[in-house]
Amino acid sequence: MPLLAVLVAAALAGCTAAPSGPVAATVTVAGLNPADSTRITASGTVTGIAENDGRCIFTFWASSGAATRLSGPGKAAGDHVACGPVDEEVGFLVGGTYSVELKYQPVAGDPVTSERYPMTLPTPSDLNP
Questions:
Q1: pTM for this one?
Q2: Residue 21 and residue 80: Cα distance in Å, rounded?
Q3: Nearest of 123, 99, 127, 92 to residue 113 by alpha carbon
């Protein structure tokens, strides 16, 4: 290999951080959209992998067991995958305590699921006194 090709390859190798460690999903934000209190939003990260087009699935669990799911594509962000933000009308979700879980389905391989992230939605009367 010519010396110039070796130098270019070495320089480019440092441009993108390589994923390391086990694949793990984490919900980083979940709750009402700060710009519009009639919508819920969630974001998360998946470490140990860096790819585009995996599937990020956020499940909002009510204490009653009811759930709603929001999903979107994962996007490579350096040495990890960024999930979200996903955003949807609050819909049937009412004021109360919820937990939010992120499941990431990679392009190839087994899915990984986060621990549940606690979230509280205010009652509608608290939003519009």
A1: 0.79
A2: 11
A3: 99
Q: How far apart are the first and last CA of the chain?
A: 72
Distance CA 76, CA 53 (A): 9
Own/partner contacts of 2-6, CB < 8 Å, gap of 24 or more, are: none
Which DSSP letter does residue 125 get?
Answer: H
Beta-bridge partner residues of 55:
73, 105
Tokens found for residue 2: 């010519």
pLDDT in tens, 8-58: 333 333 444 556 679 999 999 999 999 998 899 999 999 999 999 999 999
